[in-house]
């Protein structure tokens, strides 16, 4: 008789800040079906095309199922090995180079059933702390600089999507193409039907622009200038909230003096947005009773004025008294948490061994590899060749390491080009985990046995700890016990895996839907800081500012972001999943009608995108939806980051300001576009 079992899990695509629930049916140990979970309060049964393609991960012929070792560096020849054999080689190298020359890095591939819960991230950090090796916080790949900007102002907490749909009178999607975050978009749609005004500010007419009452197209890297000019209008027109400013902010007078020359006319020259549109936007925002800004992630914070944009944007709710107000403030963003959210930290940070550690700075990591300070590099569910800028430099740096190890479920660019050892990981259905939205923590239960020799990542830490003599790395009897330890927090109501199973696979977080309901902000003063002494002490501007956009005649500004079929580099940039690979079968570069005509480029032809750092092949998407002077592409395509800038943005003095990493590189790029010759 056929035995059918049903499990609650979460979609393994990390479309944060909102995530979707799944019901999984298994018959006789084989996957029977995956459907949206109608009882999930965040997604309510919805699955986008990414979630609907998740079944293609299971039994995929491209999966890594056996540990592999490269026969010879530079070759494409691999031989099978065992977990014990691979761990022996790793431990031998680690002992030979010393713990401070070993570096661990992890990415979204490690969080397919862990995002925002953070247990698996903490377990890698725990090993690194107790062993005493290098490790870095991967927020620098994505939202770290944005978090730094809002954090300097004091606005790290975010209001929920439910607060947005129920209470916002105006919603600004600032660099946030929320079609890639469908659970958030649904609440924007609800707010619009209720009568809220929707504004999109972006470098192109995104899919989310279809919802907008107003679309503001801005030159890449100049968002801070728009926000500064909006502040100038609000002050000039005396539209600020005097009571809020007096009670809950510092530095207003300094800001008022600083901002005087930053008029909409000044901003028009930088941004390409008319001063009339900037003025109207500022007045509309300031006059709305409850206005919420949804700040985008990596697309907004890569290039010029990366953290300055978030810093300046987050001052706007402080001027208008929107913080702590239902429907106001800052909405769901990458890396944001609700007021009161949290889990128990199991990383053993207080037990980290003293040592000479490489700072959380992307350029510092590359330099450490180049200089031999890091000789063993271990990647957990990541692809640094596509996610780090200046790919050619990063590839050469990894080539200088004694040993490069990758733990993953599919081959990727890093594995193909530089890895020496590959360890096969379990997929989300083959191990237990949890994922957290802003309001709930959801169980991702194990539904299938592991295929082949795939193992959960904690097996890697256990094996290395045993060989290296590191104690207390995995003090739990099972991963379920480890989850219970992380869940034992007042924000979860001290939930357990068992209680979550009994409650339909989730626990409601004891959080406020409105950020900063107590008006105690995350700054040294406890107030919104228009003037930040903390920033000044780091050698940064204490007041929100921006730099003039750069550019030369003939060069185009490269911008990048998310699309329907893609979110981060795992699943080999979705190339391993047929449905998603078919949706985006090539790297499409958006280019304006005028820029294409000037270069003799027709729609859908093959082109080369190049600059002094490298070159990349793409397909032209000639469209009226992008302004002249800007080109746009889905980020993370293998080879794309050969074009981007790896120089640091912030000084080392700023890197430890917050618990997350802010040491992101610039990622900016100006490029030339040319038609590929048929002979190529």
UniProtKB/TrEMBL annotation:
Metal-binding among keywords: yes
Record GO terms (molecular function): iron-sulfur cluster binding; metal ion binding; molybdopterin cofactor binding; oxidoreductase activity
UniProt domain 4Fe-4S Mo/W bis-MGD-type: residue ranges: 4-62
Coiled-coil features, chain-numbered ranges: none
Family matches, as InterPro entries: Asp_de-COase-like_dom_sf, MoPterin_dinucl-bd_dom, Mopterin_OxRdtase, Mopterin_OxRdtase_4Fe-4S_dom, Prok_Mopterin_Oxidored
Highest taxon above the source species: Bacteria
Name the record gives this protein: Anaerobic selenocysteine-containing dehydrogenase
Species the sequence originates in: Yoonia sediminilitoris
């Amino acid at each position: 008789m056929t035995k059918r079992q049903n499990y609650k899990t979460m979609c393994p695509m990390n479309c944060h800040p909102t995530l979707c629930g799944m019901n999984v049916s298994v018959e006789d140990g084989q996957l029977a079906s995956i459907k949206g979970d109608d009882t999930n309060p965040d997604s309510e049964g919805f699955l986008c095309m990414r979630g609907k393609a998740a079944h293609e991960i299971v039994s995929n012929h491209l999966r890594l199922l056996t540990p592999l070792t490269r026969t010879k560096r530079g070759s494409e020849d691999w031989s099978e090995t065992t977990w014990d054999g691979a761990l022996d080689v790793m431990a031998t190298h680690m002992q030979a180079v010393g713990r401070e020359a070993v570096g661990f890095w992890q990415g979204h591939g490690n969080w397919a059933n862990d995002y925002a819960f953070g247990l698996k991230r903490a377990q890698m950090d725990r090993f690194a702390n107790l062993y005493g090796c290098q490790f870095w916080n991967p927020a620098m790949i994505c939202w770290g600089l944005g978090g730094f900007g809002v954090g300097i102002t004091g606005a790290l907490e975010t209001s929920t999507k439910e607060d947005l749909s129920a209470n916002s009178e105006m919603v600004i999607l600032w660099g946030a193409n929320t079609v890639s975050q469908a659970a958030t978009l649904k609440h924007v749609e609800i707010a619009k039907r209720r009568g809220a005004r929707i504004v999109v500010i972006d470098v192109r007419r995104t899919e989310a622009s279809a919802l907008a009452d107003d679309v503001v197209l801005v030159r890449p890297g100049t968002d801070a200038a728009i926000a500064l000019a909006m502040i100038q209008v609000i002050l000039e027109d005396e539209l600020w909230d005097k009571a809020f400013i007096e009670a809950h902010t510092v530095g207003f007078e300094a800001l008022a003096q600083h901002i005087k020359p930053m008029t909409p006319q000044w901003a028009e020259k930088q941004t390409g947005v008319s001063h009339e549109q900037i003025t109207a936007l500022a007045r509309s925002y300031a006059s709305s009773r409850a206005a919420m800004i949804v700040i985008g992630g990596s697309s907004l914070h890569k290039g010029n004025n990366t953290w300055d944009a978030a810093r300046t944007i987050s001052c706007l709710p402080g001027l208008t008294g929107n913080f702590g107000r239902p429907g106001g403030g800052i909405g769901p963003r990458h890396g944001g948490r609700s007021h009161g959210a949290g889990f128990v930290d199991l990383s053993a940070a207080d037990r980290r061994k003293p040592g000479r550690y490489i700072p959380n700075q992307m350029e510092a990591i590359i330099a450490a590899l180049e200089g031999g300070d890091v000789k063993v590099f271990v990647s957990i569910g990541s692809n640094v060749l596509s996610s780090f800028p200046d790919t050619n430099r990063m590839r050469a740096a990894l080539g200088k390491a004694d040993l490069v190890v990758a733990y993953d479920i599919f081959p990727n660019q890093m594995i193909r080009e530089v890895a020496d050892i590959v360890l096969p990981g379990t997929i989300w259905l083959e191990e237990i985990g949890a994922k957290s939205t802003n309001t709930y923590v959801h169980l991702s239960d194990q539904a299938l046995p592991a295929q082949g020799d795939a193992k959960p990542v904690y097996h890697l830490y256990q094996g290395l700890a045993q060989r290296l003599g590191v104690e207390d790395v995995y003090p739990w009897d099972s991963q379920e016990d480890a989850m219970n330890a992380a869940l034992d927090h007042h924000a979860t109501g001290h939930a357990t895996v068992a209680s979550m199973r009994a409650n339909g696979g989730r626990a409601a977080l004891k959080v406020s839907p409105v950020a900063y309901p107590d008006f105690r902000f995350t700054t040294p003063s406890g107030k919104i800081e228009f003037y930040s002494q903390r920033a000044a002490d780091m050698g940064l501007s204490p007041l929100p500012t921006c730099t003039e956009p750069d550019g030369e005649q003939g060069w185009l500004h490269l911008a990048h972001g998310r699309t329907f079929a893609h979110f981060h580099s795992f699943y080999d940039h979705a190339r391993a999943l047929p449905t998603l690979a078919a949706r985006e079968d090539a790297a499409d570069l958006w280019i304006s009608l005028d820029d294409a005509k000037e270069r003799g480029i027709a729609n859908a032809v093959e082109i080369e995108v190049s600059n002094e750092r490298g070159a990349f092949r793409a397909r032209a998407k000639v469209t009226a939806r992008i302004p002249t002077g800007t080109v746009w592409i889905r980020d993370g395509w293998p080879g794309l980051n050969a074009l981007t800038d790896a120089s640091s943005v912030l000084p080392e003095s700023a890197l430890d300001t917050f618990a997350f990493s802010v040491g992101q590189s610039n990622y900016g790029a100006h490029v030339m576009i040319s038609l590929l010759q048929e002979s190529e």
